[in-house]
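re: ur question from earlier - yeah i can do the single chain one, its not a big deal. heres the input i used so u can compare w yours
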Amino acid sequence: MSASKKSIFKGTSFTNFWVSRMFTSTSFQMISVAIGWQMYDLTHDAFSLGLVGLAQFIPMVLLTLVVGQVADRVDRRKIVFICQMVEALIACLLLYGNFANWLSREEILIAAFILGACRSFEGPASSALLPQVVPKSILQQAISWSTSAGQTAQILGPSLGGVLFSVGPAYVYATSAIALLLSSILTIFIKLDSEFIRKAEPVTLRTMLMGLEFVYKHPIILGTISLDLFAVLLGGATALLPIYAQDILHTEAWGLGLMRTAPAVGALIMSLILAYFPLKRSFGSILFAALGIFGLATMLFAISTNLVISLIALFIIGASDVVSVVIRSSLVQLQTPDDMRGRVNAVNSLFIGTSNQLGEFESGTMAGLIGAVPAAFIGGLGTIVVAGLWMYLFPSLRRINSLSGDKTEKAG
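and the output i got, formated as tokens:
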């Protein structure tokens, strides 16, 4: 068990990458909590609060083709470093704005937009950088550890941001700025395990669209990315947690907090398990099995009227989701040539971001039309239906046996 950990952390480069990702993701979560609360404190307007999330999401849509092109032409460490420095600068400006008392609705939206733009560049560049930091033989473990950093940030960031905000928003921004500066320093010292030769191709509309073209022409990657989009789109029951906490489970705010934490805890534990005990074979079968469990757990959560059962269901949702995330991420990374990883990861990031945002919208809309319980139940059932449909539409994905693309023999 310890050998797998040693093989990952024996050098400083992956350690620098992992800690940098942890600090950056936690800081982003903290800042998002702070600017959301400050926006509502200033405006007492739910629409303005929604604009903060929209301001962070819009750059992802607008910049997808650009960020992928940049990530395939420029040293990815430099992209991540610059993004972290800009994010640290925004945190410092928000800190100064609190002391000078000039933060308004517009300034907060501008800060949210710039942070969203930075994350749009940083995400695909960081994802494309990881296969250059570790050998292919331990890439799945590296992705599992990287996922654990993200899940830890989702647990730690909002809670730490909330605690610091209760003392004063300046503490959130000061802490985030320091963490982001440390992240940027760690990024500088990441050494690459492998380099790649960047093609001297002109910047044209076609080269910008090559990520989409590559995904479309490779059924395994197309199936992987589109499966994430539709499965998460339908299975977004976590968006309904406030309704369940208040109207169905009749719990206080602490219960809502537990329900928000349960999927992240399940995801964190499973990502650590996969880091120590990486999957060896039957990746296609395990992927679809994990999605089936995700759907069943969502349906269990939908009909539960007991907080303990709901927490167990949410824990399973988070754990099963991470299994599919690690497999999908590993497939995308290993099935994509290095000179295309930036563009393909940009497309992947857009699909993931879109599925998360639209999934919350879909769940909320369905709940408004037919009620929270039927909406969540149908969403879980829809995930199972999508998994079954994708097994039929993408048989190469179903039969894949190893991350290198080997397939099992067809039955019969």
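The CA atoms of residues 134 and 193 lie 6 Å apart. not sure if urs matches, ping me
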